[in-house]
Amino acid sequence: MGGLASAEELVYGPVRSRRLGLSLGINILPANGKTCNFDCPYCQYGWTRVSPDGAKRWPTPEKIGSALSERLREAKLSRTRVERLTLAGRGEPTLHPQFPEIVNRLRAVRDRESPGTRLAILSNSSTADNPATRAALLALDERYMKLDAGDPITLRHVNDSPISCTRIVEALRTLPDIVIQTMFVSDPAGRMDNCGDIAVIPWTRAVARIAPRKVHLITIDQTPASSLIGPVSDVRLLEIANRVRQRGVAARAFLSDA
Q1: Vertex 116: Cα angle to 143 and 70 (nearest 5)
Q2: Which of 90, 125, 146 is the last residue of a domain?
Q3: pTM for this prediction
Q4: Can you give the pLDDT at residue 115?
Q5: Looking at the structure, do residues 174 and 218 belong to the same domain, yes or no?
Q6: How many structural domains does the chain have?
Q7: What pLDDT, on the 0 to 100 scale, is given for residue 203?
Q8: CB of 39 within 8 A of CB of 27?
Q9: Are residues 242 and 127 part of one domain?
Q10: Which class for 127: exposed (0-12), middle (13-18), buried (19 or more C-beta within 10 A)?
């Protein structure tokens, strides 16, 4: 059984991000492991493993709120201007069984300790059709939702997702004011990539159907779980971003030298 998370494991940083500015990360998942319902070959935390006894010790909303309060006070004392509080961490944040309560508590702490700071989430979109999860997502200021594929075969290869592609797309289509984030990867053998036209064409159709506020295109910049895949070139990212714009959706490619 995994140990209980410390305050430092629950709230980390601040981290300087090209997309999110100076952000405090909030990891509401169990300590000493990765908790995710995807198994992406590009994940910097490695492959998704099931603990031998199947048990997880979830940090409580109270402890999470207390850890955030402590870190925000430290930031205030050091005159550090945190721009975002980002639910991320080692896996999928919305899998926490008390996710809605945690969001409410984080909002209360933010309003008390750092009013005006944006509260965001990086999510794999797998639970976006759950009513309670959707309500909690809408209580956040910013929603960065993953969509790495627009067809079931690519979704299986790039995310190993148990959720159908149609289900994810339809859930995102009805979730307002979101930013789609897509990780593009290359595989010389063509088994696990999503950067070729055969994958990009249905993906751009799915993006157009969702009609997000913006799309962020990124590629690998840390060691992935699989040694068989690698980053996509800046040229290709820009080409794909341009295809998204041709569909009437704002897009930004985050390049290796940016």
Answers
A1: 90
A2: 146
A3: 0.93
A4: 95
A5: yes
A6: 2
A7: 98
A8: no
A9: no
A10: buried
